[in-house]
Amino acid sequence: MSNRVTVLLHGFGADASDLAPLADMIDPEGQWTFYFPEAPLEVPIGPGWTGRGWFPISLRELEVGVDFTQIRPPGLDLSRKLVSELIFHLNPEKLILGGFSQGAMVATDLAMHEPETVDGLILYSGVLLDQPGWTKMATGLKGKRFIQSHGTADQVLPFSAGQKLYELLKSSGAQGQLVSFSGAHEIPMPVLKKTQEFFNSFVVGS
Length: 206
Fold this sequence. Notes:
Blueprint: E1 4-9, H1 22-26, E2 33-35, E3 41-46, E4 49-53, H2 59-64, H3 76-90, E5 94-100, H4 102-113, E6 120-124, H5 131-137, E7 145-151, H6 159-171, E8 175-181, H7 189-204
Helix pairs in contact: 3-4
């Protein structure tokens, strides 16, 4: 078996275990090796309860909706470099990189900076951020395959912001689809089915 690796990055307030159950759902035949890195920041998410974050988000931003379209969040560069170092040590022959929400943003940023290391992208509820910077780098994603999903009722990261990310990816020449669904900030089963098809396309094409 070739060294096929998938790295999935959890969302803000979650931890490394959050996305781990997805491995059996999207790769039931075990053809990929999955890694679920832990974000570097500890963030409070309730009384006596903490999670992890890739870059800071205030509670007010979470309540009113987050818009990073024109902003490069502080801490994004550090998180990208940490994930990049992990991938370097894994030295995969084929890499699918992705994540949920904030994790999807970090994955997109890494793919923008190091397109040669990424074969495919999985972007669950990710959105456009740092539009000036990403627009300049997006051409490196030409020909890269991706699957993106977003709930039309998402109140944390608006569906419109997900559409902006999709438009940037498509205009860059990346090849993929935006799977919309009527839910909120989540990963529903139909999206996981589409993701499984995405994985299979890499194995068949290898």
